[in-house]
Amino acid sequence: MNALEGLEKFVLHKVYNRVFAPTRAHHTRDEALAERIANLRGLTPELLDVAPDLGALSSAWQVAGEELRKLDDFKAPKDKLVCLMNCCRIIGDVLSSQHSGADAFLPVLLLVVLRTNPPRLHSNVEYMAAYRGAQLMTSQQSYFLTQLASAAAFFWSASPATFGLSDAQFAALATAPGSVRFFASTL
User: Fold this and answer.
1) How much is the mean pLDDT over the chain?
2) Containing structural domain, residue 136
3) pLDDT of 67-88, one tens digit each?
4) What contacts 116, CB < 8 A, 6 or more positions away?
5) Is the pLDDT of residue 183 over 60?
6) What pTM did the predictor assign?
7) Are 37 and 153 a contacting pair, CB within 8 Å?
8) 3-state secondary structure string, the chain?
9) Contacts for 124-130 with beta carbons within 8 Å, 24 or more apart?
10) 149 burial level (CB within 10 Å; 0-12, 13-18, 19+)
11) Would you state the pLDDT for residue 187?
12) Sorting pLDDT into bands at 50, 70 and 90, what band is 27?
């Protein structure tokens, strides 16, 4: 297994610039998703179904978000997955300590993604899914990658009806003064 891990890392380091977001369409999609997430910055934790006591744990979510932002710092799919796993473990540990159920995981992940707006999220998700060897992917890694892909898809498809808002209220999310503070300014 270690030889396979090493081979995957070696090969993908060599071809990374050709296989990670190889077309302009990938860059366009990344930019559009980042803009879409930024335009939803006015979402409150409650609109994401995050309990108020969990929404208030911003320092824990900041640490989780810092791990998520590191996805773009690595070339090997395993290294990117380690960042994702670290993020998700922080969320899981906090939820466990707060006696929150598994149903709270995805809403909190949505909150972390919203607050951090990780760079090139779409391409990172696609890259991990495409280039992590299936025989090397653990079920937990696969689960968390699916959750992150679901979070990206959620932000793509979010509409006023998703949150029970009018079109005007939904449009105002982009200009809401700090309802959700982004961590990027503190990194």
Assistant:
1) 90
2) 2-186
3) 999 999 999 999 999 999 999 9
4) 65, 66, 68, 69, 182, 183, 184
5) no
6) 0.89
7) no
8) CHHHHHHHHHHHHHHHHHHCCCCHHHHHHHHHHHHHHHHCCCCCHHHHCCCHHHHCCHHHHHHHHHHHHHHHHCCCHHHHHHHHHHHHHHHHHHHHHCCCCHHHHHHHHHHHHHHHCCCCHHHHHHHHHHHCCCCCCCHHHHHHHHHHHHHHHHHHHCCHHHHCCCHHHHHHHHHCCCCCCCCHHHC
9) 124/71, 124/72, 124/80, 125/149, 125/152, 126/26, 127/19, 127/20, 127/21, 127/77, 127/80, 128/77, 128/80, 128/81, 128/84
10) middle
11) 33
12) very high
Query: Which token pair is 137?
Result: 């992917």
pLDDT tens sequence across 89-130:
999 999 999 999 889 999 999 999 999 999 999 999 999 999
CA distance from start to end of the chain:
36
* CA 137 to chain CA centroid, nearest Å: 18
The domain total for the chain is 1
- The two tokens of residue 87 are 């993020």
Both tokens assigned to 98: 């707060």
CATH number at residue 52: 1.20.1050.80
